[in-house]
C-alpha cells in the first residue's frame, strides 16, 4: 500500500519545495545557484566522459602512432572498417550472441524470480544462492570456467566433451558461464518489479476467476513491463559490449569463431597498434549503441502512456 | 568524528603526493650524475624469461648502488601493456621484448638509439648475431640480446627405455621423431597417461617456434627476407605440417593438442607424460632433477639441423630520463661476469658467442649442444610479426590449424590473408 502511495507523496513534497524556493529566492541569483549545484556533476561528466569521448573522436580522424605526432587522415579509418573480415564476422557473431543470451537470460531470470518472489520458509536461502554468482568478478568467473572445463585438469574435463573445442560448444559453454554469472542479478532486478505489484490487483484477479496463466499474462507481465525494459537494456547493451568471457574463456577461438566486436577493437589498438582504426570502430559502436538504446526506450515506453 | 576522519585522509593524500614528488626528484638527480649513483631503474620483462631476468637483476642490485626494479608481465598481456604504456608516455626505463617484436617496436620509435654506446663495447662483434640484426633499424642499433631461448627436441630417456627404444639415441630427422613418438605411444600409451608427443595446436607462437626450424633444417624458408611475403603454403613447410597432421590423426600427440592455447604446452613433458617433443631450451634448467632428458637439434623431414633463436632483446625506452643508469645495467648484463656467473651457471644460452664454451657449459654436453645451435638457427624478420603470427586472432593460427587439423584445400586462400597482414600499413 505504502509503495503505491509513495510516488504521489514524493511529487507533493517536490511541489512544496519548489514553492518554498520561489518564496525565498531573489530572482537574479536563482540561475547562478542552480549552476553551482550542478557544477560538481558537470565537472565530473566533462572530465570523465566528454573529454575522453572528444579525444576518441579526434583519434579516429588521425593516424595515431604509439609515440610521436598524429597525422590527420580522414576518413581512412572509417572507410577501411568494411575491409576487415574479422570485424564484419564479429558483428554477426556479437548480434547472434546478444539475441541468444538475452532471450535465455530473461527466461531464466524470470523463472528464478517467480520461484522466490513470495515469502515462505527457506526462500532467503535460495535468493542468496541464486544471487551469489553475481558476487564473483566476471574475469574471475571466466577463469573459473576455463579451469573447470579444462580437459587436462578440470573437474568437468574428464568427460569426453570438447567444451571449448568446437565453435558451437565454445558458444554454448560461454552462454552457460554468462547465465550462471548473471541470472541471479537479473532475477534481483525482476524481483523488485514483482514486489512492487500490489497484492490487491492479484486479489481482484482471483475474485474475477482468473486462472494462473491468465494472471501471469494479463497482470504480472504488463505490470512488470518497466522492469523488464530495464533488464533488457542492461542485457542487450552488456552483450553487445561482451569482452571478458570471450577474451579469457575462449580466447576468440576456436578458429576465430567467438570473436566479439570489442575484442576486434582491442586487437586493433593493442596488437596491431592501429589506435586510429580502433578509435573509429569505437565511435561506430558507440553510435550504434546510442541509436539502439533510444529505439528500445521508445518501444518499451510506448505502452506506459 | 567523520570530519576528523576525512581530515586524516586528506593529510594522508597530501603526504603521499609529496612523497611521490620527492621520489621523482631523486630519480632525476641520478640522471645528471655518474651512471651508478643510486638511481632506481624500472624494468619490464615477460613471464617467459622471468627466471633469467630476475637472476640478472638480483646479481646487479647486490653489487651496484643503482637498483633495478623488475616488473614481470604475463606473456599474453605483454604487447598490449607495452602499447598502452607507450601511448600514455609511461614506459619503464628499460624493457625487454620477445626478439621477434623488436623490429616493430624500433620502427614505432619506442627504443632509444644506442648505436654509439654499443660501439664502445669491446666484445660488440660476439653479441648474438640474430638478436643484433633484429635490433637494428635503418642502420641504427636499439637493443642488446637479453636472454636466448632456442627450440630443441627433448626426449624422455626413461620412457624410451620402457618402450624398447635406445635411450641414448634421439631423433636425427623429423621422420625418426615421428617414428619414435609412435613407438612410445604404441608401447606405453594404453593407460591414456603417456603420449608419444605433444605440441601447442591452438597457439600461433608455438607453431612458429617448434615447426619452422624443421623447414630451415630442410633448406627452406617461411618468408622472404623482408618479411613481406609468406612462403608457408609450399614445401618443405607443407611436408612438416603433414607429418604432424598424421601424428595427431593417429592419436600419438596428446588428446588436448588441438585445444592447447600455449599457456600450458611445456607442462606435460616434465610430468613424464611425453616421449619426445619440441621444447624451449630455457626450460632445461627447471626440469625435475631426477628426470633423464636427452636433447637433440630440431631436424627437417630428412635431416639437417636448425633452431628458432628466440628469447628476449632489451633496450632503453625512448622516453626514459635515466638513460645513463639504464645503460650501466644493460652493458653489465652482457659483460663476462653476468654472462658466465649468472647465465652459464644456470645452464642458460649466452648472449655472446665468444663465451659459449666456459667452465660451466663443459660440465653438461647438452648445454654445449644448445650453445652451438645459436650459429645454425634463425630468427625470422618481419615488421608485422606479432599481429600475423602470434596474435590468436591473426591469420597464421587459422592457417596452421587448417593445415594440421583441417582441410588443405583452404590453405591457398588463408595464405593470402597471411600476406595481407605482413604488408598492412
Describe this structure in words.
Chain A: Pfam families: BPD_transp_1 (PF00528). Chain A: It is a multi-pass membrane protein. Chain A: InterPro entries: MetI-like, MetI-like_sf, UgpAE/MalFG_permease. The complex is a heterodimer of chains A (305) and B (425). With 305 residues, chain A is mainly alpha-helical. Chain A folds into two domains: 20-59, no CATH class; 76-304, Orthogonal Bundle (MetI-like fold). Chain A has helices spanning 2-24, 27-59, 76-79, 85-115, 123-131, 138-148, 167-195, 199-207, 212-240, 244-250, 261-270, 275-301, and strands at 62-63, 71-72. The longest helix of chain A has 33 residues, at 27-59. The two termini of chain A are 23 Å apart. The model of chain A is unreliable at 1-21 (pLDDT under 50). Chain B has 16 helices and eleven strands. In chain B, strands 1, 2, 3, 6, 7, 8 and 11 form a seven-stranded mixed beta sheet that branches. A two-stranded antiparallel ribbon of chain B has the order 4-5. In chain B, strands 9-10 form a two-stranded antiparallel sheet. In chain B, helix 2 (50-63) links the parallel strand 1 and strand 2. In chain B, helix 15 (395-405) packs antiparallel against helix 16. The longest helix of chain B is centred in the first third of the chain and has 31 residues, at 2-32. Chain B is globular. The N and C termini of chain B lie far apart (61 Å).
Strand content of chain B: 5-15%
**How many structural domains can be distinguished in the coordinates of chain B?**
2
Identify the most extensive interface between protein chains: A-B, 27 and 29 residues
Main β-sheet description of chain B: 7 strands, mixed
Q: Could you tell me the mean pLDDT of chain B? A: 88
E-strand count of chain B: 11
Provide keyphrases for this structure:
heterodimer, A: 305 residues, mainly alpha, MetI-like fold, 2 domains, two-stranded antiparallel ribbon, 12 helices, 73% helix, disordered N terminus, B: 425 residues, alpha+beta, D-Maltodextrin-Binding Protein, domain 2, 7-stranded mixed β-sheet, 11 strands
